[in-house]
Specification:
Elements: E1 11-16, E2 25-30, E3 35-40, E4 45-47, E5 50-56, E6 70-78, E7 81-85, E8 94-99, E9 102-106, H1 109-116, H2 127-132, E10 144-145, E11 153-156, E12 159-163, E13 169-173, H3 183-201, E14 211-215, H4 221-231, E15 236-240, E16 245-246, H5 253-259, E17 262-266, H6 279-283, H7 297-300, E18 303-307, H8 334-340, E19 343-346, H9 355-363, H10 379-387, E20 400-401, H11 412-424, H12 430-460, H13 484-492
Parallel strand pairs: 1-3, 14-15, 14-18, 15-17, 18-19
Antiparallel strand pairs: 2-3, 2-9, 4-5, 5-6, 6-7, 7-12, 8-9, 8-11, 10-11, 12-13, 16-20
Helix pairs in contact: 4-10
Length: about 500
């Protein structure tokens, strides 16, 4: 009987590229050799058998980012296998593609496409919907990104990828969060986890350390997160002075000045002063709505940024174990974050795998003193914020948003370049397609809006209903945005073009 020959363990080999985004990495492996090459930006930390961009709630020198709450991504050799860790939230993913006997994995979609020699299909009109589908949860999001060459790219959210020597990839769940029985235990878990992440990001063994910075607004989530960040040593906050809808004044300056030594306040369209087309790197991931963060680029480099994504503290919404979300806000920050070089910590995602427990706490009698009634009421966030010293009248009065919609107000240079891209890839039948698409989009928006109002009213009465999606998903975004992802990728991928090593 012939014995199977033992395979050699993986050996990591690193190549730092100064010209690419500082936190980007791309791993390439072939079945013919045990050597795995990792091409990475200047801020990616490396050791003999591990690499990471970001921080987690464990000891830095152990490099066990896959065993904790990881805010960032990386990989290590574990028991002879290669383990790659995605962030412990659903705002960013890992991307993998198998081309012949070669496996390519990256924390950047355009980086993976470049290294695999692939392109998005200009004629495919559902990339936008596919990219935003993560809001439907971990079981229902679109996992495959089609390419022009017919080779699929896979997206991996909130998981570890375990790669064996045959380059077979299996998905492994993140370590589970604890159960939460009451508010005090849940709040302490949020604070202690954020504290450990902060200590990890400032470990003296690192080549680069990160300083805490928080967002603050007049809503619910960011003031609560700002209080937790302050307790972990944060001294600075950033805020957007105006909103795109709802309360016209969304500035958190007054709240920030209660808590911090420094508050940086800017308008939503401050990014208009940035050179080039800032919307492109956000559109590349399916949504230009987070582009207002680009106006703070100079203060974000080298920071741990805490934000209030997602709406985990709404007592009328149960994310479930699949982490279903109201929308995909925050999901387009990835390429911007990798280029600028900061760690993103969306605090409400911490422990959200047990969101059913969090929802029960939010509806419990112990939160009654922090319940104000109405459709916009989040007692968990209010209790954290008020006990942290923020007066009740200063936040959570009226819902608003700082998101910027492409169809309403893009930068003129970006709009002109996108229209040029659309014209170059326009087919004769597209005019009719877009006319039908526009009509169905109009119907879809009105159906969803009135359905949402109806569901919220019934929810306050204890009756939970789900409004059916009567219009196909591909018509729930404007027709003119159908090629935004392809346009964004076509621009961003140029950052990852470099001459191969000899």
């Amino acid at each position: 009987m012939q014995m199977k020959r033992a395979q050699a363990p993986f050996v990591l080999s690193f190549t730092k590229k100064e010209g690419i985004p500082s936190l980007a990495w791309c791993l390439e492996a072939t079945s013919a050799t045990e050597r795995v090459t990792v091409c990475h930006g200047s801020r990616v930390e490396t050791s003999t058998d591990a690499f990471v961009e970001g921080a987690w709630d464990g000891t830095y020198v152990d490099m066990a980012m896959d065993q904790g709450v990881c805010m960032g991504s990386g990989g290590r050799i574990r028991n002879g296998e290669l383990v790659l860790s995605s962030p412990s939230h659903t705002l960013e993913a890992l991307y993998s593609v198998r081309v012949a006997d070669r496996l390519v994995v990256s924390n950047s979609l355009p980086f993976a496409l470049v290294r695999a020699g692939l392109d998005l299909d200009p004629g495919y009109r559902s990339y936008l919907i596919d990219m935003r589908s993560i809001k439907r949860g971990l079981q229902r999001y679109v996992k495959i990104i089609p390419t022009l060459q017919g080779v699929p790219v896979q997206r991996h959210f909130f998981s570890n990828l375990v790669v064996d020597r045959d380059l077979q990839v299996r998905q492994e769940r993140k370590p589970p969060a604890p159960r939460f029985a009451a508010f005090a235990g849940y709040r302490e878990y949020l604070k202690s986890t954020l504290e450990r992440i902060t200590l990890n990001a400032n470990d003296s063994s690192r080549s680069f350390v990160y300083r805490l910075l928080t967002t603050v607004s007049r809503g619910y989530d960011s003031p609560a997160c700002a209080v937790l960040a302050k307790e972990c040593g944060c001294e600075r906050a950033m805020t957007v002075s105006d909103s795109s809808w709802g309360n016209p004044i969304d500035s958190g300056r007054e709240i920030g000045e209660l808590l911090f030594d420094e508050v940086i306040e800017r308008k939503r369209q401050a990014y208009f002063h940035n050179a080039g087309m800032p919307e492109a790197e956000f559109a590349a991931l399916g949504d230009a709505g987070d582009v207002q963060f680009s106006g703070f680029e100079d203060v974000l480099a080298g920071c741990i940024l805490t934000t209030g994504f997602p709406n985990a503290w709404d007592p009328q919404w149960d994310m479930g174990p699949d982490i279903r979300r109201h929308d995909a806000s925050g999901s387009s920050l990835g390429e911007f974050r990798l280029r600028v070089g900061f760690i993103h910590v969306p605090v409400p995602f911490i422990g959200c795998e047990n969101h059913s427990d969090i929802s029960v706490i939010g509806r419990s009698a112990e939160l009654d003193p922090w319940r104000v009634g109405g459709l916009y009421d989040r007692p968990i966030a209010r209790r954290i914020a008020e006990i942290g010293g923020i007066p009740r009248h200063m936040f959570g009065q009226r819902k608003s948003a700082a998101a910027t919609w492409w169809t309403l107000q893009p930068k003129s240079e970006s709009k002109a370049n996108y229209e040029k891209f659309r014209s170059a890839h326009r087919r004769p039948e597209d005019k009719t397609t877009e006319l039908v698409h526009s009509l169905l989009y109009w119907l879809s928006r009105r159906w969803l809006y009135f359905g949402w109002l109806f569901a919220r009213v019934l929810g306050k009465l204890g009756i939970h209903v789900q409004i059916p999606q009567v219009v196909p998903l591909r018509f729930t975004e404007p027709a003119v945005e159908a090629q935004l992802v392809q346009w964004g990728i076509s621009i961003v991928r140029q950052r990852y073009q470099f001459e191969p090593d000899r």
